[in-house]
């Protein structure tokens, strides 16, 4: 398996203090079938997030409707182990509600 370095994709600078690598990670797939319910292996989901951070990904996208809430939980669990936690940025979307799979 080829390892990557997210920084090689370049960076995006919002201001003097807010710089992210262009290669980010979207957490929508860290949920059950149809982006509903828990991922089949919660520890593996957190491992994926932790490994992404190790590879230099410092921008993560999530939403409370992913799962709902499961992607946020796995993101938090994975980032607790990240050595670069203070350099990670999270984009979150709120207000979208879902009542069930595929809705």
TrEMBL record:
SUPFAM superfamilies: NAD(P)-linked oxidoreductase. It holds the Pfam family Aldo_ket_red. Coiled coil: none annotated. Gene3D superfamilies: NADP-dependent oxidoreductase domain. Residues 22-94 form the NADP-dependent oxidoreductase domain. InterPro entries: AKR2_Oxidoreductase, NAD(P)_OxRdtase_dom_sf, NADP_OxRdtase_dom. This is Aldehyde oxidoreductase. It comes from Lentilactobacillus parakefiri. The lineage of its organism: Bacteria, Bacillati, Bacillota, Bacilli, Lactobacillales.
């Amino acid at each position: 398996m080829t390892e990557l370095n997210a920084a090689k994709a370049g960076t995006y600078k919002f201001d003097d203090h807010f710089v992210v690598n262009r290669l980010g990670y979207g957490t929508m797939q860290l949920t059950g079938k149809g982006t509903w319910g828990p991922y089949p292996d919660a520890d593996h989901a957190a491992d994926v997030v932790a490994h992404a951070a190790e590879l230099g990904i410092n921008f993560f996208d999530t939403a409370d409707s992913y799962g709902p809430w499961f992607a946020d939980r796995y993101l938090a669990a994975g980032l607790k182990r990240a050595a670069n936690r203070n350099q990670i940025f999270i984009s979150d979307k709120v207000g979208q509600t879902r009542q069930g799979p595929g809705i």
